[in-house]
């Protein structure tokens, strides 16, 4: 079974990453993917540190490693397909515009879903021919669901927290996800589109990743169905929390694997710290 570990080189790997990588490694053949589309935040030295830390942990993976910065034309092709299907529109709204639209008296309470604030649809009627460099490209969620028809796809979750098959729910997608961004103005793609294209390209059987991404999975399964890509199984694992019960972030350098290494910890200590 092929699994993957897909870190972004935007900071040191911490205990949460160690747990994610060890989980992927134990559940199958782990492929590594460097998610470096955000070039403003990604740095080559973080990438090198990722390889060092993973090797130190005793993990191994096939080479060459897939790097998202080299895959922009594949993301572009997927975006073009969704555009050709008539499911997208250009959007020039900035975050402040979206907040302003959502705070209008008639707008109701803003909903924050797995992709952030649910977009109020301000630009939805703009034609694609109108798209310029200042525009993001959004998926028209209602049209996408129409296209898939009444029998929506499902995914299998093999993780401990949300057992069972999960069928996509049109109403939840409209109300809590909405018109997600497929291509950011500055990047030409988005996390959701890139991850779907790459999991298919790498022929991943089971996507292993943190619980924080469970809610985003219906977006990925929807895009797979639209693009005619296979849906892998998903295994969302528990998050490693800090002493205050908050999930670890890249900025929590104190929890960095490199810091534990420098203090003399062994790979076995790391495994114990993450509860393995
Ligand atoms: N690149 C993401 C991260 O570092 C993980 C995305 C995924 O596993 O789907 O948080």
List keywords for this structure.
metal-binding, Rossmann fold, ligase, 276 residues, 36% helix, 3-stranded antiparallel beta sheet, 16% strand, 3-stranded parallel beta sheet, 10 helices, Glu/Gln-tRNA-synth, alpha/beta, 2 domains
Descriptive report:
- This protein has 276 residues and is α/β, with parallel strands linked by helices.
- The chain has two domains: 1-70 and 241-276, 3-Layer(aba) Sandwich (Rossmann fold); 71-202 and 223-228, Rossmann fold (3-Layer(aba) Sandwich), CATH 3.40.50.
- The chain has helices spanning 15-27, 44-56, 72-84, 95-102, 141-148, 170-177, 191-201, 217-227, 257-262, 267-273, and strands at residues 2-5, 29-34, 66-67, 88-91, 112-113, 116-117, 136-139, 154-157, 164-167, 181-183, 206-210, 233-237.
- The strands form five sheets. The chain has a three-stranded parallel sheet. Strands 4-7-10 form a three-stranded antiparallel sheet. Strands 5-6 form a two-stranded antiparallel ribbon.
- Strand 1 (2-5), helix 1 (15-27) and strand 2 form a beta-alpha-beta unit.
- It is globular, with a radius of gyration of 19 Å.
- The chain starts with a strand and ends with a helix.
- It binds glutamic acid.
- The site of glutamic acid has 7 residues, from loops.
- InterPro entries: aa-tRNA-synth_I_CS (IPR001412), Glu/Gln-tRNA-synth (IPR000924), Glu/Gln-tRNA-synth_Ib_cat-dom (IPR020058), GluQ/Sye (IPR049940), Rossmann-like_a/b/a_fold (IPR014729).
């Amino acid at each position: 079974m092929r699994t993957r570990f897909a870190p972004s080189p935007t900071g040191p790997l911490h205990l949460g990453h160690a747990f994610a990588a060890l989980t992927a490694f134990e559940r199958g053949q782990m492929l590594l993917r460097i998610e470096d589309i955000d070039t403003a935040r990604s740095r080559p030295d973080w990438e090198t540190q990722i390889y060092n830390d993973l090797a130190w942990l005793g993990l191994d993976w096939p080479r060459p490693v897939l790097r998202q910065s080299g895959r922009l034309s594949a993301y572009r092709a997927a975006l073009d397909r969704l555009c050709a299907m008539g499911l997208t529109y250009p959007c020039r709204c900035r975050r402040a515009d979206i907040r302003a639209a959502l705070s209008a008296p008639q707008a109701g309470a803003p909903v924050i879903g797995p992709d952030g604030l649910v977009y109020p649809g301000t630009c939805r009627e703009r034609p694609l021919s109108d798209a310029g460099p200042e525009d993001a490209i959004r998926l028209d969620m209602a049209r996408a669901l129409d296209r898939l028809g009444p029998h929506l796809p499902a995914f299998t979750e093999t993780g401990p927290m949300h057992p069972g098959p999960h069928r996509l729910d049109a109403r939840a997608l409209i109300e809590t996800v909405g018109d997600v961004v497929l291509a950011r103005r500055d990047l030409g793609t988005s996390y959701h589109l890139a991850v779907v294209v790459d999991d298919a390209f790498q022929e991943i059987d089971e996507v292993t990743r943190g619980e924080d991404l469970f809610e985003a999975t219906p977006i990925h399964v929807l895009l797979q169905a639209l693009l005619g890509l296979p849906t892998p199984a998903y295994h969302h694992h528990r998050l490693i929390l800090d002493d205050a019960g908050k999930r670890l972030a890249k900025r929590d350098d104190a929890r960095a694997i490199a810091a534990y290494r420098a203090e003399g910890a062994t790979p076995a200590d790391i495994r114990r710290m993450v509860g393995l």
